[in-house]
Amino acid sequence: MRPANLPGLAFARIYAVASNTFREAVRDKVLYSILFFAVILLLASLGLREVALGDRDKVVRGVGLGGISVIGAIIAIFLGVGLVWKEIERKTIYTLASKPLPRWQILLGKYLGLWATLAAEVGILTVMYTLIIGYQQGMPGAGVYLAMGMLMLELTLVTAFATLFSTFASPMSASAYTLCVYVIGHFADDLYTFGKASNNPAFQSFTLAMYRVVPNLGMFNVRTEAVHGMAIPGTEVMWAAVYALGYTAAVLAVAMAVFERRDFK
Question: d(Cα 98, Cα 93) in Å, to the nearest integer?
Answer without folding.
Answer: 8
